[in-house]
Amino acid sequence: MKKIFPRLLLIAASVTMSLNAVAQEVDSTQTATVITLDDALKIALSENASVRVADKEIERVGYAKKGSYASLFPQIDITGSFMRTIKKQVMYMDMDMSDFMGGGSSSGSGSEGSEGGSTGSETSSPMAGMPGGGGIEVGRWNTYNLGVSASMPLINAQLWKSLKISGQNVELAVEKARSSRLDMVTQVKQSYYAVLLAKEALNVYKDVYDNAVKNFEQTQMRYNAQKASELDYTRAKSTVANAIPNVYNAESSVILALWQLKAVMGVSLDQDIDVAGALGDYSDTMAADNYSSDALTLDYNTTMRQLAIQADQLAETVKMQKYAYIPSLALTFSYSLNAMTNDFKFSDYKWTPYSYVGLSLNIPIFSGGKRYNDVRQAKAQASALAIQVDDTERQLKIAIRRYLNTMETKMKSLAAAEDGVETAQKAYDIAAQSYNVGRSTITELNDAQLALTQSKLAVSQSIYEYVVAKSSLEQILGHDFIDDNGNVDLNNR
C-alpha cells in the first residue's frame, strides 16, 4: 500500500491538471454575434436560397402573364427576301399562237412582190425556236420582296381563356413562394431550438463534469487520509474520465446545430454567431397555447390553396379545350414591294407595291378527334386532382391531430420531468452528504448523479419536442408570421 501511494498521487495530480485544462477549454467562448429568433428569421427571409428562388419564380410567371396579354395587341412584322432562279419555268400553249404573235395562214397567199420572192410555205411562226418546241420561259432571274404585315385577333375564345389561366399561374407561383417561406420559417425555428437544446445538454454535462471533479478531489483527500478505499478512489477517477467525452460530444452537437442553423438562414458557415435565450423561456407559454376548433382549419394551408388554384386552372382548361370548336376571327394587313430583274443594277429596279387589309375567319371542322380527346384529357386531370384534394385534406387533418397530441403529451412529460429534477436533486444532495461523512459509497453517489442528469435532460427534451411540434402545426395551419409591413410576427395567427 505504501509503495503504490506515491504513484497514485502522481496519477491523480496529472489527471486533475488535464481535467482543469479541459474545463478551461469548455468554458472558453469566442466572441460571436448573438442573434434572437426574430433576427434569424429576418436574415433567412433575405438570404435563404429557397425563398429567393420562389421570388424569382413569381417574377418569371409575371412576365409570362404579360407576354400572354401581348397577344391581344397587333403583331407587326417586317419581312424581306431575295430569291435567285436556278432554272426558269417554261410554259406551253395548246392553242395556235400565230394569230396573236403577228403570223397568218400561208396557203395561197404568198407575197410575190416581196424581195426574195418568198412563198407561203416559207412563213414561220414567231414561236419557232422556243425551247421545248414552242414553250415560253417566264420570270426573271432575281426576285426581291420587302414588306410589313400585321394581324390582331378579334374573336378568339381560346386565347381569352388562356389569359385567365396565365393569371392563375401567377397566383400559384405566389402561393408556392408563401409555401417556401413557411417551410423556411419552420426550419429556422426548429434549427434554432436544436441549438438551444444542444447548449442546455452541454451545460448539464459540464455540471456533471464539475461535480465529478469535485467528488474526485474530496475522495482523493479522504484517500490520502486513509478514510476512503482504493476502490472508491479509482471509481471517482473513472467517473471524471467518463465525463470528459460527454462534454466533447455535447460541444460537437452545439457546433453541428449552429451549422444547420446557418445553412437554413443562408449565411456562411464561417460566420461566428450564437443564439440568445434558453428552452426554459418557452415553457411559460406552453400552458397559454390554446388552439380552438375555429383556428384548426385548413383555410390558410398552403398545400390546399395550391390544389384549389390548380383545380380552378383545370376547370378553365376544360373550358378552353371546348372553345376549340368555336370559330376565330382576326384582322390582317399587309403591304409589300416587289422587284424582278435579270441583273444587279439596283438603280434600274422597278418596285411594284402590293397591299391588302381583310378579315381572316377560321372555322374548325375536323381534327381527327384531337379536340375531343383534349377535352377528355382535361376532365380526367380534374377528376384525379379532386381525389388528390380529398386525400391531402385527410392526411393534413391527421397531422394536425398528431401534433396536438404530441404537444399535450410533452406538456405532461414536462411536468413529470420537472418533478423528477426536484426529487433527483434532493436525492443527489443527500447522497453527497452521506458520501462526505462516509455513510455511502461513490457508486451510490454516481447513481444519484445519473438520475439527476437524466431528469434535467428530460426537461429540455420535453420543451424541445413541444416547440418543434408547435412549429410544424403552425406550418400546416398556414401561419405566415409576416405582417403587412413585411416584419416578423411570431404571434401572428
Describe this structure in words.
- The protein has 493 residues and is α+β, with helices and mostly antiparallel strands.
- It has two domains: 5-72 and 156-326 and 368-477, Outer membrane efflux proteins (OEP) (Up-down Bundle); 75-86 and 137-155 and 328-363.
- 60% of the residues lie in helices and 12% in strands.
- It has ten helices and eight strands.
- The protein has helices at 5-27, 37-47, 49-69, 131-134, 157-224, 230-265, 280-286, 302-322, 370-436, 442-477; strands at residues 33-35, 75-84, 89-91, 136-138, 142-155, 273-275, 328-341, 352-362.
- The strands form three sheets. Strands 2-5-7-8 form a four-stranded antiparallel sheet, with no helix packed on it. A two-stranded parallel ribbon has the order 1-6.
- Helix 5 runs antiparallel to helix 10 (442-477) and helix 8 packs antiparallel against helix 9.
- It is elongated, with a radius of gyration of 46 Å.
- Mean pLDDT is 82; it is low at 1-16, 21-29 and 104-129.
Defining traits:
two-stranded parallel ribbon; single chain; Outer membrane efflux proteins (OEP); 493 residues; alpha+beta; disordered N terminus; 10 helices; four-stranded antiparallel sheet
In CATH, the architecture of the largest domain is: Up-down Bundle
- For the secondary structure, the number of strands is 8
Unreliable residue runs? 1-16, 21-29, 104-129
Q: What's the structural domain tally?
A: 2
Structural class: alpha+beta
| Mean pLDDT rating | 82
Name given to the CATH homologous superfamily of the largest domain: Outer membrane efflux proteins (OEP)
The proportion of residues in beta strands is 5-15%
- State the name of the first-level CATH class of the largest domain: Mainly Alpha
Overall geometry comes to elongated
What string, H for helix and E for strand, traces the elements in order? HEHHEEHEEHHEHHEEHH
Strand order of the largest sheet: 2-5-7-8
Measure the end-to-end span: 72 Å
Helix content: 55-70%
What's the main sheet like?
4 strands, antiparallel
Briefly note the CATH topology name of the largest domain. Answer: Outer membrane efflux proteins (OEP)
Query: Count of DSSP helices?
Result: 10
Rg value? 46 Å
